[in-house]
Structure formats: C-alpha cells, structure tokens
C-alpha cells in the first residue's frame, strides 16, 4: 500500500489495498454500518429523485470517523423532501427551508453496537437515532459586499459540489446506487492530507470569506495542510473576513478551539494575517525579544499552554471545554501593554493579569459570546497568576479559602490553567511548581471536607443580622454581611453565638450604632 494512503487510517484488514479498493471497501462498510442511508436512497428513488450523502459526511466516512449526523443533497425540492421524510418519522423540522434544507431525527430500532467504519479504533456505536439533513441542490451566488449568499437551487450534483468550500468536502455517494462522485479529486487530497478549493481559492474565499477560517479549523481537525495557493489567497484576502458577522466568526473560532490540536489552525490564522482582524490580541503576543532573551516567546508559550490545558482536560477526565481553552488562549494578552524593561535588563509584565482580563472582556463581547462565558473566561485570566508564590511562602487557611471563593465555579478550570501555564524547560523548577500545586489542591480538598468551601457564606444571614442589631433593611446590613463573610474566610466556620458576638463588637465601632 502506498504510504500516501496513511492519512486514510487503514485498518489491518485494509493494508495492501489500492486506493480504489480501499474506497470500495469503505463505502461497503458505510452502507452495512448505517442501513438508513440505503433505505432513504431507495425511498427517494421510488419517487423519482436522486439522493446523495454529501460533504463532511462522506469525508468523515472515508476517514472512518463518521458521527451521528448525516448530510444529504437531492434534486427534490424542500416540500417534496419534507413529505418523504415524514413517511419515516414525525420528528421533522424546516428551520432551514429558506436555504433548501429539511431536517429530521430518525430512530434506529434495536440498533446494536457496530464496528467502527474503518474496522479499527476509535470505536463507534450506532446511535439510538440519526440526525438527517437533506438540502436541495444549490448554486449559491455571492455579492462582493454581502455576508450571505443569494440562494438558488441547482439542477445537478456536480453543480452542487463545485460550490463547496474544499475538495475534501466536495464528494458525494449516491444513496441508492452507491455511485461515488468526486469531480474535484477530493479523495486524492484526503490521501495526500491537503486542503484545496474546487474553484481557484481567490474566487472561493471571495464568495465566502469564512472559508478561510474553516481552512484553519480543518488544519487542526483533520491534520491536513493547506496548499500554497490556498495559503497565498488567505494572506492576500485576509481583510475580507471583516464582512463576516461576529456570530459566524465566533462559531468558527469556537469549533477550532474545540479540536484536539488547535495549535496548527491558530498558527495559520496568525501567519496569514486573518487573526489581525478577528483576534488581534493573539498576533500581538509576537513580542520582539530583547537582545538577552530575558523573557520567553509569549506567542509560542501561549500556544503551548493551550496544548497543555487540553492534555490536562484529558488526564483529568474532563470533556473538551471551550471556556478553559479560551482562557488558556487569552491568559497573557495583557503582556504587550504591560511589558517594561527594568534596570539590569530584566523584563516585567506587572498587572498583565488585570489588563488581560479587561482586554479579554472587550474582545469576547465584540465576538458576541454570551455574557456568562465572557465573565467566566475573564475571571480565569484575572486569577491565573494568583497561585504564584504559594510554593515559596505557603498560604494560610484564610488565603486558601479566598482562592476558592474568588474562583467560584471556575475552580477546576483554574486548576487546569494554572498547571498548563508552567512551560519552563527547567526540570527542577517545573517539578517544584507541580509539587506546590499538588499541595494546594490537597489543602483545598481537606478544607472542603471540613468546611464545604464551595458554599462559603457568612455564619449569619440577613434576617439574623437585623434581629441581633435591631436594624431595618438597608446598606448597613450589606456592610455587616461583608464583615461576617471576611470573618468566615479569615477564621473559618463560627457558631451562631461566636458570630453574633463578633457582629456586636463590629457594630459598636459603626457610626450608625450611635444614632
């Protein structure tokens, strides 16, 4: 078997097959693994229509990584598609009707677990239901100043495929006859591990500039490299990304960060200049090094922190986490604005955590992320330096309680970010930091077991405060509550009697008590 076919992840039983033989084997396995494809193909054929599995669904099936979503295209129009789907399921939706798309959820009765499509790892079991989307052939037309295409229905599968973003997504399999349609050599590009556009890339990216960000995402998701013409077009047309809505940019950036290896895609966005328009804080981290190299390469350090945070997610059994990964990406964005060359050649970045949190809030709001997401990521950026110094001088129980309270429900993410932020090549220093953070997590666990740290609150509530002091609701109650909270953080849990005595002593020094 040619070494170039390694990108197709051949299983042991597939080794020795030629590319055409491997293709036939994968398609046969696809139809045997998911009988629904052939069933829908025959349903449409019986009513005089063609139906093709298309795009990413074909690409992933050939790579052996098909998920639970199936994308089809057909010469049938939306009303006909909906009518045919309703013969199989009541769970049909038409939210994409304006774009020619009808969706459905089709249950799979008594579906047993099946072998993965490639016959090897990773394993894939049949779902309880398949999510199906069928779109009428399209020939979208873009205007140079438009964010959205003018939707037009096409008349052939070839016409539909040429409008797609990359050749690896411009393949189709007829759902009834199993005919493989690949007018732009997408299979060969998969085998070679490259990303190429059906049209010349300048036209493709002019039609839909978001495809440039998709190129970065697929670089990370698939492990493919863009061709030289694609990279050149991305570089020369980077400013055209400005016509894309913040929401579409946000969604594509999120998908990129949620891949297993976002470093390659992020680096492509930076090297082509696209990041200058969608996430300028990232290329700004490429600080010119001082002549004595007194500080590390902040940009490369950031990409490494993202990688290490993903590795820690996996090792701690966490799911892919956009909030934590975004915090890793943004944690040092305050450094360019705070870099100072101190006497003696030392370089400092004082308060880059606070400045970085402000820049993070501003950027994520501009990208239309939800407010809670913005708050959570900004909190992590602001807290990412809090741990440093723990290993040298240790913390009191009060300091540990404040660390937990300030992190709130972001504590697990803060653990990951703080550990990932250690990229030193000094083995002794790295081991010392790891030991110190192990110790901090141990102390947090011990205090949590004794004091329920995640639910830290004063030992008296507002009603008790007013009853003890004989006051009505107002600002004084809030100040008293804050005093008791600080007492709880400094000294740990108090009994009601102890908290009441401390409250009375505090009250005696307040001007309102003399009124």
From TrEMBL:
Its cofactor is Mg(2+). Gene3D superfamilies: Beta Polymerase, domain 2 (3.30.460.10), cca-adding enzyme, domain 2 (1.10.3090.10). GO terms for biological process: tRNA processing. The keyword Oxidoreductase does not apply. InterPro entries: Bact_CCA-adding_enz_type3_sf (IPR050264), HD/PDEase_dom (IPR003607), HD_domain (IPR006674), HDIG_dom (IPR006675), NT_sf (IPR043519), PolA_pol_head_dom (IPR002646), PolyA_RNA-bd (IPR032828), tRNA_adenylyltransferase (IPR014065). Its EC number is 2.7.7.72. Pfam families: HD, PolyA_pol, PolyA_pol_RNAbd. The keyword Metal-binding applies. Keywords: Magnesium, Metal-binding, Nucleotide-binding, Nucleotidyltransferase, Transferase, tRNA processing. It comes from the Bacteria. GO terms for molecular function: CCA tRNA nucleotidyltransferase activity; metal ion binding; nucleotide binding; tRNA binding. PANTHER family: CCA TRNA NUCLEOTIDYLTRANSFERASE 1, MITOCHONDRIAL (PTHR46173:SF1). This is CCA-adding enzyme.
